[in-house]
Design a protein that fits this description.
By secondary structure, the chain is α/β, with parallel strands linked by helices. It contains eleven helices and eight strands. About 45% of the residues lie in helices and about 10% in strands.
Length: about 300
């Protein structure tokens, strides 16, 4: 494995025009989507979801149920895609891997003392190694927000680089926990740190605090990915997580991705939603578009 060398960010992060960001987000939500395109978009959203259970009360049975839902989102509709991944704690990775074998659905594991990130580096390394040894296809790590807020940007950079070194070819999603960063300028700075330190994806939130994902925050992160691409010619992914629970809002996010990064990013290789409640609303809307009947949530399995 190639050893990571400590390097400083090669660029300084630009200042964010908050008013401009909010105005652009308002325009994304005003786009009208025709019925045929809407069904296509809803299926795309479903294929981009990382179904997630990250609770102290998680059991093998709950994880198995979630895996079935990932592979069979709604048995009454035959032409649905699977979700992109199932996201669990490292201790549940082996259960999920067995259930999802051969399905193409990835197993993502959170690590680095999720959700707080308040642990020594050796603990975070052990946490990540355990998840990888259990067979995780992807790692979702949290940054040290306390260090970031103290201005210790090099510490944050080096920590991400070390975890990416452990991951090798395994995809690393870096969670910024944007609700704790305080400003869009800090969201941009944290995004740049993560991207240049080796993140394959940048992710808004753990889903454990509010606010989680918002359109302005996501747009700032997409702009960071675009600038990184123009500078390095390397594509990187985006995952808004937490707070996105309706199909309508998810479609607005897809509009934002397309108009900011382009159609190449409209696959689950480069864009994900961290959500579970979202899946059922998307399924309800797909059934409505196909049949004209809006079923209640009781017709769909609870995640």
């Amino acid at each position: 494995m190639k050893k990571t060398t400590n390097t400083l960010l090669p660029i300084s992060s630009p200042t964010v025009d908050q008013v401009g960001v909010e105005e652009r987000c308002a325009k994304f939500t005003s786009r009208s989507i025709k019925t045929e395109t809407k069904i296509q978009g809803l299926k795309m959203v479903l294929s981009m979801i990382d179904l997630t259970t990250l609770e102290g009360a998680d059991t093998p049975g709950k994880v198995k149920q979630l895996c079935y839902k990932a592979m069979h989102p709604h048995d009454a509709v035959s032409d649905l895609p699977t979700t992109a991944a199932v996201c669990v704690y490292p201790s549940m990775v082996k259960v999920a891997k067995k259930e999802l074998e051969g399905s193409g659905v990835k197993v993502a594991a959170v690590s680095t003392a999720f959700p707080s990130g308040q642990a020594p580096l050796n603990v975070k390394i052990a946490d990540t190694k355990f998840a990888l040894d259990q067979g995780a296809d992807e790692i979702d790590m949290v940054i040290s927000r306390g260090k970031f807020l103290c201005g210790e940007y090099q510490f944050v950079f080096d920590e991400i680089a070390k975890i990416k070194e452990l991951c090798g070819n395994i995809r690393l999603k870096v969670i910024l926990e944007t609700g704790e960063l305080g400003s869009l300028d800090d969201v941009r700075k944290a995004s740049d740190i993560a991207l240049y330190a080796g993140a394959d994806f940048i992710k808004t939130s753990t889903g454990k605090i509010s606010p989680a994902a918002t359109m302005p925050v996501t747009l700032v992160m997409l702009e960071a990915i675009k600038d990184f691409y123009f500078k390095t010619n390397k594509m990187r992914g985006m995952k808004p997580a937490g707070g996105i629970s309706t199909a309508k809002s998810a479609l607005h996010y897809l509009v934002m991705v397309k108009e900011t990064l382009g159609e190449e990013w409209l696959t689950n290789e480069w864009f994900r939603f961290g959500a579970s409640r979202l899946a059922n609303d998307v399924l309800m809307q797909i059934v409505k578009q196909k049949t004209g009947i809006y079923h209640s949530v009781d017709y769909f399995s609870k995640d």
